[in-house]
Amino acid sequence: MKESVILEVKDLYVNFRGESVLSNISFSLKKGYALAIVGPNGAGKSTLFRALLGLVPYRGTISWEKGVKIGYVPQKLAVERDLPLSVHEFLGFRGRDPEIAEAFNAVGIHDDSLRDRQLGALSGGELQRVLVAFAIMGNPDVLLFDEPVAGIDLGGEETIYNLLLRLHKEKGLTIVLISHDLDVVYRYADEVLCLNKKLVCFGRPEEALTSESLKKLYGDSALFHHTHKQI
Amino acid sequence: MIFPFLDTTMLLGITTSVFVGVAAGYLGSFMVLRRMALVGDALSHVALPGIALALLFNVNPFLGAFFFLFIAVVAIWAIEEKTNLPTEALVGVFFTFSLAIGVLLTPEPELLEALFGDVSDVAFFDALLAVVFSLLILSTAFWLKKDLLISTISRDLAESAKVKVKRSNLLFLLLVALVVALGVKVVGTLLMGALVILPAVAARNMALRFRGFSLLSAAFGALSAVLGGGIAAVYNLPPGPIIVLVAAAFFFVSLAFRRA
């Protein structure tokens, strides 16, 4: 079976105010794969995301498969706690009640009273789920997920990663996520892209994440965190 | 009867202030959420040179005010998109500058009216303008509601959801310019900012959802205009400041209803 390529990035360069943020990035992603982007702070992970979404100017080519729909899940929103906007109103921008109910179901929100809560008053975990619901209501083929924080109050049920994995499997979604947790990368990603302004490594996690590439990525000091994961 | 001297002029004045009050209140609800509370205030001062020039050349002051506001708004929008400076800072640049020029240019007898408005003498044509443009503001803002709110929450999220953020920002600023130009007749340039902001901040204290918030804000805008205009007429006071005082009263009352 030939797997089609959903994203092809070639010779990507991004500069901010004359300073190079990303240079010479090339990789491609197959449809239905889960790709994790890892790298230290300031490595340009979010910039790469924003370039993929077409939100920052860049040189080089980013070509998505024709007609592809991208859903984006930001890490958090800058909303005040008392913002007068309910979850129902927010998701109502994306679709009607049956679609909201379907999305709630898909992201594992079973408490209907959440609909009437204010967006700003949600807990981190609830907000993240609502944002995933918002993204999948656009019927995306790809989900871009900015640094989901694992383990925040999801009521001991499903972690946000299990949710992603489930969506990935059930809906055949291609997933691109930023993560700083290598453990997550090993468990959930088909491929990993290590980034530190340049492409440091790319490939299957067990092959790409060598001690050498990790050293290049984080320096010597960070290695000990994940030595137990080295094979 | 609330208005003992209800005649055609009064009726035109009331109609004008109600429509402008509703439009200002509704638009104000978006402005408060977008942290543009002071933008309306500052922009209203930009109207003054326009009014002055219109008076000098005998053109309708509304048109003069809107012309200047239009230029200022487009300039602010363009600089904002280019530099990412916050709207408030940019508006601040245009604001004192315009006020100074406006005060110099405005003929003395008209200055007071330009600064504080006078809804007790509204011509039929001005009332018609107010009604038509208020309806235009309301319908456009309602149509832009989704785009404006998503981009208020997160610009990246909005753009990823195919919202034309630049376009909706420009249209929104133009609506603000329009409502400020209309408000010049009702409460004047100095106080128009208050008519945009006070109803919205009062409503925000009381509402949990955007629907309730924006409707309440529009209602406060209308009520401030009618009650303020009525009180001013009864006690023979200038309507502009009284309207703003009533709007401020709504705000203070709303504090008692504020949800924790």
Automatic annotation (TrEMBL), chain A:
<dbReference type="GO" id="GO:0005524">
    <property type="term" value="F:ATP binding"/>
</dbReference>
<dbReference type="InterPro" id="IPR027417">
    <property type="entry name" value="P-loop_NTPase"/>
</dbReference>
<dbReference type="InterPro" id="IPR003593">
    <property type="entry name" value="AAA+_ATPase"/>
</dbReference>
<dbReference type="InterPro" id="IPR003439">
    <property type="entry name" value="ABC_transporter-like_ATP-bd"/>
</dbReference>
<dbReference type="GO" id="GO:0016887">
    <property type="term" value="F:ATP hydrolysis activity"/>
</dbReference>
<protein>
    <recommendedName>
        <fullName>ABC transporter domain-containing protein</fullName>
    </recommendedName>
</protein>
<keyword id="KW-0813">Transport</keyword>
<dbReference type="Pfam" id="PF00005">
    <property type="entry name" value="ABC_tran"/>
</dbReference>
<dbReference type="InterPro" id="IPR050153">
    <property type="entry name" value="Metal_Ion_Import_ABC"/>
</dbReference>
<feature type="domain" description="ABC transporter">
    <location>
        <begin position="7"/>
        <end position="222"/>
    </location>
</feature>
<keyword id="KW-0547">Nucleotide-binding</keyword>
<keyword id="KW-0067">ATP-binding</keyword>
